[in-house]
C-alpha cells in the first residue's frame, strides 16, 4: 500500500478524473459557489431585481437590518421557530423511537406511519394544515371545542400563528428524528442493557447511564441537520400564512429574504439578510462541531 | 393484592408498561393519521358537508366531484407531467454525477484530489437560500425563466450524494478492489463489475432520497415557473388554491391528496431502502 501514497497518479487517471468530476464541479461552482460570492457583493447594493443598474450603498443595508424593528421581530420568530422545532422534534422523535423499539404488536406499521409525513411535500402539508386549523369548520378548532376548550383564532393572533406553523413543521419532520434515533437505538450494544438489568437499575437510570451516552453521535448529527433544516423553512410558512398575520408575525429570516427580494423588489436588501443568515449558520455549526470535538476528547 | 404480587411479580412488572405502550401507540397513530384521514375525507365530501359545524367524520355522500374540480381549476395533468419530468431528469443526472464523482474521488489518483473533495463537502454547508437571488438573476439573463432547463440545471449539482457514495466506496473491502487492480481491470470494468455490484443498496437509497427531495421542490420552481407550463405539482397546488380564492376547500384538498399520493406510494413500497440512506453516517460517530 505504501507505493500508492506517493504520486502514483498518471496522466490517464488524471484525464479520466477530470472527465468524471468536471460536470459536477462546474455545476457546483456556477450555481453554489458563484452565487455565494455574488450574494455578498449584492448585499452592498441597492438593486431592484429586474433593473440592469444598481447603486452601491456600502454598509447601509446591514445598518438598516441591524437597527430596524422589523428584523428584531424576524430574528425573534426565527429563534423561537428554530429552537421549538429542534427541541420538539428531537424530544418527540427520541420518545417515539424508545416506544417503538419495544416489542409491541403492530409496531412495524406504526413506524411506517410516523415516518410517512417526512416524505410529503412541505407545500402540500402546509395547504392541508391551513385547512385543518381554519376557524369554525377546521378539524383542530372543532376537536378543541369538543373537549371544552375555546379554540384561539390561529390566523388572527401572532403568537398562535407562529405556534401553528411550528407545530405543522414538527408534525411533518418528526419522522426524520424518529428514524435516526431508532437506527441508533437498534445499533446500540444490547449486552450493556442486559448487564444493567441484572444490576436491577431502574428504567430512568438505565436510560441515562447506558442508552443515552450511546445516542450521542445521533444526537449531535440531528442537532446540526435539524437546526440547519428548520432554520431554512419556507414552504410551510409560504402556504400557511405568507409570513402574516399583521405583516410579519410568522416571518422568519428565509421568508424575509423572499419577501424583500420578490415582493418588495429589494434584492440588495434580501441579499444582505441572506448573507447575515449564512454567517450565523456557519458560526452555529462551527460552534457545535467544536463542542462535539471537545466532548469526544474527554 | 398480596396473592397477585406473590403469583406473578414478573407479569405485574411488565403489564403496566405494556398497557402504557399500547396507549401511547394509539395516541401516536391518532396524531399522525387523523390529519391524513381528514384531508382524504374532505376531498370526498360534497361542498356543504365540508363546512358543517360540528364536523362530520364520514363523507356522506361520497363524491368524486372535487377531483373533477381539480382538473377544471388548473391543468393538473400538465403539473403531473412537469413533476415527473423534473424529478426524473434530476434524479438520473444526480445519481450518475454522484456515482462518477464518488468513483473518481475514491479510486483514481490525481493531483488536487483532497482539494476537490473538500470543495464538494463544503458545498453542503452553503444554504440554498443564499444562492436564490443570484441564480435567479443568472437564469433570467440566460433567458431560462419558465423553462425546464432553468428549473433543472441550477439544482443538478451533487454534493450530498457524492459525499454519501464516496464514504461508501472507500469502505468497500480493499482485497477485492486490489485483486481487480492486479488483474488490470480498467476503470470502467472496476466501476461496473466491482464497485457497483457491492454498492447497490446505497445507490438505491440515494436515488430514493433524491426522488423525494426533487418531487417536493417548492421555492425554486415557484420562482422560475411563471405560468402552468413548467410548474410542478406543489407549485400547481398553490395555484389551485389561489384560483379557488381560499374558499373552495374541496378541490384544494383533492389536489393535496393527488400531490401527496405518488410519493406516498413510492415510500410505502420502498421505505426500507430509503431509510438506509438517511441513517447512513448518522448513527456511528
TrEMBL record, chain A:
Q: Where in the cell is it found?
A: Cell membrane
Q: Where is the ABC transmembrane type-1 domain?
A: 75-288
Q: Transmembrane stretches, by residue range?
A: 12-33, 74-100, 112-133, 160-184, 215-234, 269-291
Q: Which UniProt keywords apply?
A: Cell membrane, Membrane, Transmembrane, Transmembrane helix, Transport
As for membrane topology, the entry says:
Multi-pass membrane protein
- The source's superkingdom equals Bacteria
Coiled-coil spans are none
Q: Which PANTHER family match?
A: ABC TRANSPORTER PERMEASE PROTEIN, INNER MEMBRANE ABC TRANSPORTER PERMEASE PROTEIN YCJO
Q: Of which family is this protein a member? A: Belongs to the binding-protein-dependent transport system permease family.
Record protein name field:
Sugar ABC transporter permease
The species is Ornithinimicrobium faecis
Automatic annotation (TrEMBL), chain B:
Localisation: Cell membrane
- Broad class of where this protein is predominantly found: membrane
Name the family the entry cites. Belongs to the binding-protein-dependent transport system permease family.
Q: Which keywords are on file for this protein? A: Cell membrane, Membrane, Transmembrane, Transmembrane helix, Transport
Q: Please list every transmembrane segment annotated in the UniProt record, as residue ranges.
A: 21-40, 84-108, 115-138, 144-165, 191-212, 249-270
- Organism source for this protein? Ornithinimicrobium faecis
Name used for this protein in its record:
Carbohydrate ABC transporter permease
Q: Name one Pfam family in it.
A: BPD_transp_1
Note the SUPFAM superfamilies from the entry: MetI-like
Instruction: Give the ABC transmembrane type-1 domain ranges.
Output: 80-270
Amino acid at each position: 500500500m505504501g507505493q500508492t501514497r506517493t504520486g502514483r497518479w498518471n496522466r490517464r487517471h488524471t484525464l479520466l478524473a477530470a472527465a468524471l468530476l468536471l460536470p459536477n464541479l462546474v455545476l457546483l461552482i456556477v450555481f453554489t459557489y458563484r452565487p455565494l460570492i455574488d450574494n455578498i457583493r449584492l448585499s452592498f447594493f441597492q438593486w431592484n431585481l429586474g433593473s440592469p443598474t444598481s447603486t452601491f450603498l456600502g454598509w447601509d443595508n446591514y445598518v438598516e437590518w441591524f437597527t430596524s424593528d422589523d428584523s428584531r421581530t424576524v430574528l425573534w420568530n426565527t429563534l423561537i421557530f428554530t429552537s421549538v422545532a429542534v427541541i420538539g422534534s428531537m424530544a418527540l422523535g427520541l420518545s417515539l423511537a424508545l416506544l417503538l423499539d419495544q416489542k409491541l404488536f403492530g409496531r412495524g406499521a406504526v413506524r411506517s406511519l410516523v415516518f410517512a409525513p417526512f416524505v410529503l411535500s412541505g407545500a402540500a402539508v402546509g395547504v392541508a394544515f391551513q385547512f385543518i386549523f381554519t376557524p369554525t369548520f377546521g378539524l383542530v378548532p372543532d376537536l378543541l371545542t369538543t373537549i371544552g376548550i375555546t379554540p384561539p383564532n390561529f390566523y388572527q393572533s401572532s403568537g398562535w400563528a407562529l405556534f401553528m406553523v411550528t407545530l405543522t413543521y414538527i408534525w411533518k419532520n418528526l419522522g426524520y428524528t424518529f428514524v435516526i434515533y431508532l437506527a441508533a437505538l437498534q445499533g446500540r450494544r444490547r449486552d450493556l442493557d442486559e448487564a444493567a438489568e441484572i444490576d436491577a437499575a431502574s428504567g430512568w437510570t438505565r436510560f441515562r447511564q447506558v442508552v443515552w451516552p450511546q445516542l450521542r453521535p445521533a444526537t449531535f448529527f440531528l442537532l446540526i441537520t435539524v437546526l440547519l433544516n428548520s432554520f431554512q423553512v419556507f414552504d410551510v410558512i409560504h402556504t400557511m400564512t405568507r409570513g402574516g398575520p399583521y405583516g410579519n408575525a410568522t416571518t422568519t429570516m428565509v421568508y424575509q429574504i423572499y419577501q424583500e427580494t420578490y415582493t418588495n423588489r429589494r434584492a440588495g436588501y434580501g441579499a444582505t439578510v441572506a448573507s447575515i443568515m449564512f454567517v450565523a449558520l456557519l458560526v452555529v455549526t462551527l460552534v457545535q462541531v467544536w463542542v462535539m470535538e471537545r466532548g469526544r476528547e474527554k | 393484592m398480596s396473592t397477585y404480587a406473590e403469583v406473578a411479580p414478573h407479569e405485574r412488572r411488565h403489564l403496566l408498561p405494556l398497557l402504557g405502550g399500547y396507549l401511547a401507540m394509539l395516541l401516536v397513530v391518532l396524531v399522525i393519521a387523523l390529519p391524513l384521514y381528514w384531508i382524504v375525507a374532505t376531498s370526498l365530501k360534497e361542498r356543504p358537508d365540508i363546512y358543517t359545524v360540528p364536523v362530520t367524520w364520514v363523507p356522506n355522500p361520497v363524491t368524486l366531484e372535487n377531483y373533477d374540480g381539480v382538473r377544471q381549476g388548473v391543468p393538473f395533468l400538465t403539473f403531473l407531467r412537469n413533476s415527473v419530468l423534473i424529478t426524473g431528469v434530476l434524479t438520473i443526472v444526480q445519481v450518475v454525477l454522484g456515482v462518477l464523482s464518488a468513483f473518481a474521488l475514491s479510486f483514481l489518483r490525481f493531483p488536487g484530489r483532497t482539494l476537490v473533495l473538500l470543495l464538494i463537502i463544503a458545498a453542503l454547508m452553503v444554504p440554498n437560500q443564499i444562492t436564490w437571488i443570484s441564480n435567479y438573476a443568472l437564469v433570467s439573463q440566460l433567458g431560462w425563466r419558465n423553462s425546464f432547463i432553468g428549473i433543472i440545471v441550477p439544482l443538478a449539482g451533487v454534493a450530498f450524494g457524492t459525499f454519501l457514495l464516496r464514504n461508501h466506496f472507500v469502505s468497500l473491502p480493499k482485497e477485492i478492489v486490489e485483486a481487480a487492480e492486479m488483474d488490470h481491470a480498467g476503470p470502467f470494468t472496476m466501476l461496473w463489475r466491482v464497485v457497483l455490484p457491492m454498492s447497490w443498496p446505497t445507490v438505491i437509497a440515494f436515488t430514493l432520497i433524491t426522488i423525494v427531495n426533487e418531487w417536493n421542490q417548492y421555492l425554486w420552481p415557484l420562482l422560475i415557473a411563471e405560468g402552468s407550463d413548467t410548474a410542478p405539482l406543489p407549485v400547481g397546488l398553490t395555484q389551485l388554491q389561489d384560483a379557488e380564492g381560499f374558499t373552495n376547500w374541496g378541490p384544494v384538498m383533492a389536489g393535496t391528496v393527488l400531490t401527496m399520493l405518488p410519493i406516498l406510494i413510492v415510500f410505502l413500497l420502498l421505505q426500507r431502502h430509503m431509510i438506509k440512506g438517511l441513517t447512513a453516517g448518522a448513527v456511528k460517530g
